[in-house]
Design brief:
This protein is mostly helical and 71 residues long. It contains two helices and no strands. The protein is elongated, with a radius of gyration of 23 Å.
């Protein structure tokens, strides 16, 4: 949307949207940063939980190294 792709924009409408976004960029940039940080943290959390589950199911550690059989 921000690049004007995906729809036939009226040139005047596009300029108006771009001006409004520019005027609000001081609020949009920090909000976008928060969203991206949240998504990044959730992705790391999901991947970690998947790795723990795989480790428990296969009794392996990082890189598939077999875990010690000692309890």
């Amino acid at each position: 949307m921000l690049a004007g792709q995906g729809r036939d924009w009226d040139p005047d409408e596009m300029v108006a949207v771009q001006r409004q976004l520019t005027a609000n960029s001081d609020r949009m940039i920090p909000a976008t940063d928060r969203v991206l940080n949240y998504v990044h943290q959730r992705t790391i959390q999901r991947l970690t939980l998947e790795a723990v589950k795989t480790s428990q199911e296969t009794h392996t550690g990082v890189g598939g190294v077999p875990l010690d059989e000692t309890p």
